[in-house]
Amino acid sequence: MLASVLGRPVTTRDLSPDETREHLLTAWGFDDAQAAGILAGTAFVRKGGNAVVTDDVPELLGRPARAYREWAQDHREAFAGT
């Protein structure tokens, strides 16, 4: 969807858990406990554990949630690159 909004390809790469852990430790400087927490959260989401819809966003913001496409269109300048 982001590629469609930007009108250009957006390359992604699906990292294995081991690759992700290594990146978190080396590139981001996280420690082992932080990396383990992030990997646990990622596994939870990949298994569908976060596939729920709540009223949290409208309750917190006082307005309905927006679609990702609308947000991306409103913030496309942030993805312009340098």
Tell me what the structure shows.
The protein has 82 residues and is mainly alpha-helical. The protein has 5 helices and no strands. The longest helix is centred in the middle third of the chain and has 15 residues, at 32-46.
One letter per element, helices H and strands E, the order comes to HHHHH
Give the amount of beta strand, in percent: under 5%
Number of helices: 5
Head-to-tail CA distance between termini = 21 Å
Largest beta-sheet details: none
In brief:
By secondary structure, the chain is an all-alpha fold.
What layout of secondary structure does this protein have?
Elements (H helix, E strand, L loop, with lengths): L1 H5 L10 H10 L5 H15 L9 H6 L6 H7 L8
Features:
mainly alpha; 82 residues; extended; 52% helix
